[in-house]
């Protein structure tokens, strides 16, 4: 069974169970897959735009997450809200530079504008779901909640020990806010998964949210054309062939 990527909501908020779990790589894979799997909407400027509201941990001249998405997915329409140097959550990073974070309304305005011009807008948070994005303490969850009926969240998680709890915590926080989950993605799936990872995969697939797929370990090192060619398969697979049948259960 494969997922019809075109049926994903127009706004996809890419969050994760933590920082460094593969949100950017997943965003790139989604951008590459959606660019190829969907038709351009009449009158639109393009199929996919990517927005990173708050980029921390990069110097002014360094490539940020949207540049990595552009490199891997070839998506030209990438946009950044504010970039800050300190590798921290946005509020303390802004304090260190004496910078003012854009308010939530500013991000809502930019996303609304992009949504008028592109078929899908992917919005990548900073770290996990409840990391604050502005001085008023708004989070990516608040941003997603500003677009009822038009937004879905993509939750990126790790493959190894600890991911079951982190994933459940993130899904519970989304459910508590009534935010729909478009899908769960494992950000880096090893070539030779161990027993724990195989068991985790089975568990994650059986959760009551769509399992979108898993990005193979090493994917960021692929040439962009190989990355783009692979992305559709990584994200469309509901039931791949790599689950140990001994670990499979029909229901849970
Ligand atoms: N599938 C993968 N294979 C190999 N390396 C990966 C994979 N996914 C992510 N990485 C690496 O792990 C690191 C963290 O990944 P990534 O930047 O996508 O995380 P993130 O969740 O976007 O973090 P942030 O909160 O900083 O935005 C990067 O160096 C990235 O290249
Ligand atoms: C610097 C890092 N790569 C991200 N941009 C910001 C992650 C903030 C995480 C805050 C936290 O949850 O403790
Ligand atoms: Mg990132």
UniProtKB/TrEMBL annotation:
Keywords, sorted A to Z: ATP-binding, Biotin biosynthesis, Cytoplasm, Ligase, Magnesium, Metal-binding, Nucleotide-binding
Binding of Mg(2+), residues: 24, 65, 124
GO biological processes: biotin biosynthetic process
InterPro entries in the record: DTB_synth_BioD, P-loop_NTPase
Record carries keyword Magnesium: yes
GO CC entries: cytosol
Reaction(s) catalysed by this chain's protein: (7R,8S)-7,8-diammoniononanoate + CO2 + ATP = (4R,5S)-dethiobiotin + ADP + phosphate + 3 H(+)
Binding site for substrate: 56
Enzyme Commission numbers on file: 6.3.3.3
Pathway, per record: Cofactor biosynthesis; biotin biosynthesis; biotin from 7,8-diaminononanoate: step 1/2
Binding site for ATP: 20-25, 65, 124-127, 187-188
Residue ranges the record marks as coiled coil: none
Cofactor field: Mg(2+)
GO molecular function, one term: ATP binding
SUPFAM superfamilies: P-loop containing nucleoside triphosphate hydrolases (SSF52540)
Family designation: Belongs to the dethiobiotin synthetase family.
Biological function: Catalyzes a mechanistically unusual reaction, the ATP-dependent insertion of CO2 between the N7 and N8 nitrogen atoms of 7,8-diaminopelargonic acid (DAPA, also called 7,8-diammoniononanoate) to form a ureido ring.
Quaternary context: Homodimer.
Stated name of the protein: ATP-dependent dethiobiotin synthetase BioD
Record organism: Arthrobacter mobilis
Top-level taxonomy: Bacteria, Bacillati, Actinomycetota, Actinomycetes, Micrococcales
Gene: bioD
């Amino acid at each position: 069974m494969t997922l019809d990527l075109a049926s994903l909501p127009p706004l996809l908020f890419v969050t994760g169970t933590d920082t460094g779990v593969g949100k950017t790589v997943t965003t790139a894979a989604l951008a590459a897959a959606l660019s190829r799997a969907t038709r351009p909407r009449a009158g639109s400027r393009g199929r996919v735009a990517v927005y990173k509201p708050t980029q921390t941990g990069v110097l002014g001249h360094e490539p940020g997450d949207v540049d990595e998405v552009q490199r891997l997915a070839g998506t030209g329409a990438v946009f950044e809200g504010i970039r800050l140097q300190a590798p921290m959550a946005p509020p303390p990073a802004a304090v260190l530079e004496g910078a003012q974070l854009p308010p939530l309304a500013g991000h809502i305005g930019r996303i609304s504008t992009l949504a008028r011009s592109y078929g899908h807008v992917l919005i990548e948070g900073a770290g996990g779901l409840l990391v604050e994005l502005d001085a008023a303490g708004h989070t990516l969850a608040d941003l997603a909640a500003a677009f009822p009926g038009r937004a879905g969240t993509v939750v990126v998680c790790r493959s190894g020990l600890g991911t079951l709890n982190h994933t459940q915590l993130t899904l519970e926080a989304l459910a508590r806010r009534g935010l729909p989950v478009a899908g769960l993605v494992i950000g880096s799936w090893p070539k030779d998964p161990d027993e724990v990872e195989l068991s985790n995969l089975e568990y994650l697939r059986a959760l009551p949210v769509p399992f979108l797929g898993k990005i193979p370990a090493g994917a960021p090192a692929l040439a962009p054309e190989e990355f783009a060619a692979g992305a559709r398969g990584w994200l469309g697979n509901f039931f791949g062939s790599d689950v140990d049948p001994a670990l499979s259960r029909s229901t849970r």
